[in-house]
């Protein structure tokens, strides 16, 4: 590798010259707003489906059941497959759209995938706001889903490619921060629109999805392409110029050489979807499937989708249930800042492990508190003090998720793939995420009715499994340049067996050799 890229003493990987520039910060900030559309939808759906005016118009059977005597089973009040189809149809559409987004992202660049996602989401928001029947609602949500699929496929990759390696965690987590802001904004809007007399507040809630869609649609038009994408599409000089601009230095030869080497290697891969199943990509493929799966079975979307419905079911009033959702939304936003400031210092593994332990404890406590009051019969009422305790532990649970599996579930998959399979790998991550978001959204109300308080123990059990998985099988990725990530897998006690020496490009081999000779001390790689 030409020049003198430093392999630091901590073994985190190379340290390329350059620092955070205002240009990088602003571009990453604009790109991260792609998370607003996903977050807004997560927050808005649960609030709208708890509004009487919405239920009476589109789901009258559910509305009549809700108005029955309050002594009916608290676990089964909202069990309607039609209602869950409305909520979860978006995620099935996002799953399918992410595969098409992979091609757009690779062939045309990351920004145009974001633009396409924003435009489609905008049309879906207009349809939902003007909906006259359930069919219109679901078609609108399918369009929203296509928008989410495109945005979630392209934004995390864009952020990871633009950011300097040592600050990649902080900048990439901006996507998750925007998701949490979208959720909070939706909760606040629902709280306000629920008070509108005349029964049309739900239209305002659904139509206002056009605001975050407009932000990412317009913003993406002004975004530059990433150097990785420019090289991948044959614009080498533009890539060199862009790399100088985003790193704030002309000393970019080493990073440019690594990007170029990765691009040359990617050109040998004609069918990324076929290649990704090869043995040498087994570590990345495993993470692309398991990390988004685990992120969903933490049970977080049970809280975020249905927070107003859940709190209402637990005996809170309609206003109180929406306010409780606002509280959890605030906790989600502020706790995400913890990961922004610690992911590049403490590393990904420590946050995963600490957050996992915190979530397990809270799920057991919340499940037990609900069991004591409602038992298996579903009969019972909560005092204000007792209800406050339930909300408090749910908030502690949300905080644990917000600085671990929330942001890192998007960050880690976006930073581990080599260029030749990066778009395909991110599509798998998004599609698995959306598939299990769909499954859980579709099954949650039925599960709550059948498992009752045991639902919290069910998700707690999954958090135990995923925490053990991280402890043994996820290596630390902080500070490692994306194109050198193969060294992390090669050095892992389990994954190293899947990667042959010839699977590592020349520059990485030399770095690995120098690292071994120096016994982990700083070494300078040059050819």
From TrEMBL:
GO terms for cellular component: membrane. The chain crosses the membrane at residues 20-40, 82-100, 137-159, 171-189, 201-223, 285-309, 321-343, 355-374, 386-406, 427-448, 454-474. Keywords: Membrane, Sugar transport, Symport, Transmembrane, Transmembrane helix, Transport. Residues 27-478 form the Major facilitator superfamily (MFS) profile domain. PROSITE patterns: MFS, SUGAR_TRANSPORT_1, SUGAR_TRANSPORT_2. The keyword tRNA processing does not apply. Pfam families: Sugar_tr. It is found in: Membrane. GO terms for molecular function: monosaccharide transmembrane transporter activity; symporter activity. Belongs to the major facilitator superfamily. Sugar transporter (TC 2.A.1.1) family. This is Major facilitator superfamily (MFS) profile domain-containing protein.
